[in-house]
Design a protein that fits this description.
Order of helices and strands of chain A: HHEEHHHHHHHHHHHHHHHHHHH
Number of domains of chain A: 1
Number of strands of chain A: 2
Strand content of chain A: under 5%
Strand order of the largest sheet of chain B: 1-2
Mean pLDDT of chain B: 89
Largest interface: A-B, 32 and 33 residues
Number of helices of chain A: 21
Largest sheet of chain B: 2 strands, antiparallel
Strand order of the largest sheet of chain A: 1-2
Oligomer: heterodimer
Radius of gyration of chain A: 21 Å
Helix content of chain B: over 70%
Mean pLDDT of chain A: 89
Shape of chain A: globular
Structural class of chain B: mainly alpha
Low-confidence stretches of chain B: 478-485
Distance between the termini of chain B: 49 Å
Strand content of chain B: under 5%
Structural class of chain A: mainly alpha
Radius of gyration of chain B: 21 Å
Number of strands of chain B: 2
Shape of chain B: globular
Number of domains of chain B: 1
Chain lengths: ~500, ~475
């Protein structure tokens, strides 16, 4: 009789819920009649993502201490659980925002792939072994490659999928090579085992660390590994972009943080410097490039590069506070990203063409709710008070200042000033220009029906954006408990 | 609790205006109702306000973000009470003006006005650095939109320069706040202690120097004050600039005694230069609002002169002058707006002879002009006199410059009066006597009346701004050497 490892089904349940959801929607794509397929897929997907979030909440509640599972291939702890909650909830919002899509084909497949990607990410954030890490990374990446090119009738969508596939695979290759080198140097794959292993002074080991960092940098879309971001974000279906900007960022950053802190604490002097360089490069490139953009999705793509910079500052702090700041920052960031892309998606459906800054003109007056919401999201991204983005930046800066990185605080403040240059152009387009585009649309087909589900998603994102400012303490308590799962 | 209400009432009003589905006319009525309720609340709170106490009045404090030591802490001392009052009075007149002018997109407009008033009250009532910063930034949101949407032809550029200047200043202050607060473990003004860090001091100074503005930081001023709708310009010059006064008096002086000492000469020189520069340029402007913009800048220089004298007279004078200048400049901006509505322009070369057939308008302009040039006996004179007497302790030169500048004030004020009221009838001035109507008078007469009361009884503010009438000691500023005769 072979002894089987004990499987902690509860720890796996958030992932399994999403996998089950993927299977059901995929079956639905075949079985359910076309006329009700959208209704079916959306309904099941909302249910599945919510279930996953609730299960992750249960895991959070029941795992005050981290426990390694299945020969250290994954860890059940609050860090992973909190990240899973954020990912699953952003999935709910994306599903709601997608419900009004005009897409006729691949309806069921779209939701199935979304669920599969979500499942991969939820698994990814608990990975504590280089192999499970790589497995989960490929798992959600491949789902995303397909999602990006799902609009097969649009060239940009196909281009985006292809670019993401090539660059993403390249990044994964680098990551895998790094894993191999670390394994070669230490003979270990588990994060804690790597930390305890001897052989850490091996040059191969440091090279491996650098390559792993670069590979994760692709997923975080930190400069200089960001070059795929604008093209992919622009070309992909907007709701997919929303999911990538929000959930992928959460997953990649949480894993980067977990890996560096648990596997490489001895090498912290090396990687803090490297990550600090990545952070400053992302802040500079993301913000400067965003100023030049006229396409809103591209602009938000560069803005997400700059946010990677802010988030990496929290990683550099390499402290309990840094982890809490990272997790807190992600909440308003995710809400604002999903919300902003949802508004863009709604405008896209209305005008039936890509949303440039000119296409936003007058939106604030024509659609007051979406206008105010986009305004709040943009202010939150700019770190303006009255939105959670403000406390996010403040918390990150204070963690960096405490850790002695005052110059990163200065860089962050400068980047914030720079970022206003393009965030304000969005607000100006919303309110301070006369619309030059909508006239034709109304003549063509009349005002589109109200998309209640999308409005609901935007409303929820708005509530989180403002709510995370007012109720900062409860959220920070959650983030702190989650951050405490890692050793310091 | 009451302070929280003072902040919450305008904000709730703003929300009501935005959300409730009411007609255009009712919108302005709703906004006026909210601001009048606020005014009543403020007036009512005077009854139990103990101006002599060195305890905060109506204070409230709740932990907000424990890790970083951030609290929601508000409360009022005498000088804050007066600044809040200035906000509410000018805000009420500005909202009234908006209703009179019939601004389009009324719901957005009045909501933003109320939001602005609420955040300004928040600025003046804040007792926590982060809360102060939040309110300080929050007021930018409505200002940006109010100027950018309802402003004049050059509004796009005006908003951009305004926001850029202000944000650079604010972000420097944010960096300073982080450095200061994190190193002290709290952001509560009552607990945060003092700092000798010159960089942190300069970060705060930068934000307030832009807000006031002081001399090299005034690039945004002309366009913003001219392109903004008149009632927004009234709030900008009358109230928003006083956020700098509050910041200097309540953050910089008490918490940075040594840097204040070290940089005193620099700031005094800048302030004196601002005063002279502002008043000279005010004399040279071709239009009414240009005159008001630069005169406002000059007066802010004078107020900063008084603050950085850091003695009893200077501080009392600075607060008194802040209030009286706020009322005067708000009144003048509103009147300038009324004239622009009548003539379609504010340029002197097309104006003139407005007094004929318009006795009420002429009287109001004349009265406000007299306050501006600080005729002896006016509240403005009392404030200026106290400031000059205070700054005299640091060198007769500053006092001499200040006194000379008051002569300049007379020059531009008289030019404003004659350019509008007297001289030949301008090409844009219509023949029919369209004097101020009752509702217009209702907007400016309260301002003039308040000024008249203050002139008769300046001590209501100057003796009730700081406990026990020892401002310098109270805010912990270092005492200055006695005047050597």
């Amino acid at each position: 009789m072979i002894e089987t490892p004990k499987v902690d089904w509860l720890a796996l349940s958030p992932t399994l819920a999403l996998l089950g959801l993927a299977a059901v929607t995929l079956l639905g794509a075949v079985i359910v009649p076309r006329s009700v397929q959208r209704l079916f897929s959306v309904g099941v997907s909302v249910g599945g993502f919510v279930t996953s979030a609730v299960l992750a909440g249960v895991v959070y509640e029941r795992s005050p201490d981290g426990t390694p599972l299945i020969a250290e291939s994954m860890t059940r702890d609050r860090l992973g659980a909190l990240a899973a909650i954020v990912i699953a909830l952003s999935g709910v919002a994306v599903v709601l925002a997608s419900a009004g899509d005009r897409r006729r084909d691949h309806v069921g497949e779209y939701y199935a792939l979304l669920a599969a990607a979500g499942a991969g990410m939820v698994f990814f954030v608990s990975a504590s072994n280089l192999m499970t890490l790589f497995l989960a990374l490929e798992w959600f990446s491949i789902s995303l490659y397909v999602l990006c090119s799902l609009d097969t009738h649009r060239r940009e969508s196909l281009e985006s999928g292809l670019k993401y596939l090539i660059v993403g695979s390249f990044g994964s290759g680098i990551l895998l090579f790094g894993c191999a080198l670390v394994y070669g140097a230490t003979g270990e794959l588990g994060f804690t085992s790597i930390q305890q292993a001897t052989g850490a002074d091996d040059p191969l080991f440091v090279t491996g660390l650098a390559l792993i960092l670069a590979g994760l940098g692709f997923k975080v879309s930190a400069a200089p590994f960001h070059m795929w971001t604008p093209d992919v974000y622009q070309g992909a279906p907007t709701t997919v972009t929303a999911f990538m900007a929000a959930a992928t960022k959460v997953a990649a950053l949480v894993v980067t943080y977990r890996l560096l802190v648990t596997a490489f604490p001895e090498q912290s002097e090396i990687w803090t410097t490297a990550v600090a360089v990545l952070a400053v490069a992302s802040l500079a490139i993301g913000n400067l490039a965003a100023i030049a953009q006229r396409d809103v999705k591209r602009m938000l793509a560069y803005s997400s590069v700059s946010h990677a910079g802010f988030l990496l500052i929290a990683v550099v702090a390499n402290s309990q506070d840094g982890g809490a700041a990272l997790l807190y920052y992600l909440v308003p960031y995710v809400a604002a990203s999903v919300g902003a892309f949802a508004v863009v998606a709604s405008r896209e459906r209305e005008l039936e063409r890509p949303v440039s800054l000119a296409a936003l003109e007058g939106l604030g007056w024509e659609r007051p709710f979406l206008g105010v919401a986009l305004w709040a999201f943009v202010l939150s991204m700019a770190g303006f008070p009255l939105t959670g983005g403000f406390f996010g930046k403040l918390f990150v800066f204070s963690a960096a200042y405490d850790a002695g990185y005052w110059w990163l605080v200065v860089a962050g403040v400068l980047a914030t000033a720079l970022s206003l240059a393009y965030y304000l152009t969005i607000i100006r387009a919303l309110y301070m220009r006369q619309s030059q585009v909508t006239g034709t649309v109304i003549a063509a087909g009349g005002s589109p029906p109200r998309d209640l589900l999308l409005n609901g998603a935007v409303g929820a994102a708005l509530a989180v954006t403002i709510g995370s400012f007012v109720l900062v303490q409860p959220l920070v308590d959650l983030a702190r408990d989650a951050s405490a799962s890692l050793p310091f | 609790m009451l302070t929280t209400l003072l902040i919450a009432v305008p904000l709730a009003g703003a929300l009501a205006v935005w959300v409730l589905p009411v007609s255009r006319e009712s919108t302005s009525g709703l906004a006026l109702l909210a601001i009048l309720a606020e005014l009543g609340l403020w007036l009512g709170s005077a009854r139990n306000f103990d101006f002599g106490s060195d305890l905060q009045q109506y204070s409230a404090s709740h932990t907000w973000f424990e890790e970083l030591g951030i609290s929601y802490a508000v409360g009022l001392y005498g000088f804050q009470y007066w600044l809040v009052g200035l906000t509410i009075v000018v805000g009420a007149c500005a909202i009234g003006y908006g209703a009179w002018a019939g601004r389009d997109r009324a719901r957005a407009y009045f909501g933003l006005q109320l939001f602005l008033v609420g955040s300004l009250v928040g600025v003046f009532a804040a007792q926590d650095l982060i809360l102060f910063y939040v309110a300080f930034e929050a007021m930018l949101i409505p200002l940006y939109v109010l100027i950018g949407v309802w402003g004049g032809a050059g509004r796009a550029k005006a908003t951009m320069t305004f926001v850029l200047y202000t944000m650079v200043g604010s972000l420097l202050m944010l960096a300073a706040i982080i450095a200061f607060g994190i190193s002290q473990g709290t952001f509560l003004l009552a607990e945060i202690g003092t700092s000798t860090n010159e960089w942190v001091f300069l970060g705060f100074l930068a934000a307030f120097a832009v807000k006031a503005p002081l001399l090299p930081f005034h690039g945004w001023l002309r366009a913003a004050y001219t392109e903004a709708p008149p009632e927004v310009a009234a709030l900008l010059s009358g109230v928003v600039s006083k956020a700098a006064v509050f910041g200097l008096v309540w953050i910089v002086l008490p918490h940075f005694p040594e840097p204040v000492e070290d940089f005193r000469e620099l700031v005094l020189v800048l302030a004196a230069a601002t005063l002279v520069y502002g008043l000279v340029l005010a004399f040279r402007q071709p239009d009414a609002r240009g005159v008001l913009a630069y005169s406002s800048m000059g007066q802010m220089g004078l107020i900063v002169l008084g603050i950085f004298a850091t003695n009893d007279l200077g501080l009392d004078g600075a607060i008194l002058h802040s209030v009286s200048h706020g009322l005067v400049s708000a009144g003048l901006f509103l009147v300038a707006g009324m004239i622009e509505v009548r003539a379609g322009t504010g340029v002197f070369s097309e104006l003139g002879g407005f007094a004929k057939g318009r006795p009420l308008l002429a009287t109001i302009v004349m009265a406000l002009g007299m306050f501006t040039l600080a005729v002896p006996g006016s509240a403005n004179f009392a404030g200026e006199f106290a400031i000059l007497a205070g700054v005299f302790a640091h060198g007769w030169g500053y006092a001499a410059v200040g006194a000379g500048a008051i002569v300049l004030a007379a020059l531009y004020a008289l030019r404003l009066i004659s350019g509008l009221l007297h001289e030949r009838r301008g090409t844009s001035v219509r023949d029919e006597p369209d004097d101020l109507a009752g509702n217009e008078l209702a907007l400016v007469v309260p301002l003039v009346a308040t000024l008249a009361v203050l002139s008769a009884w300046p001590a209501v503010i100057s003796e009730r701004s700081f406990p026990a009438d020892t401002p310098a000691e109270f805010i912990g500023a270092q005492s200055v050497p006695e005047v050597v005769p």
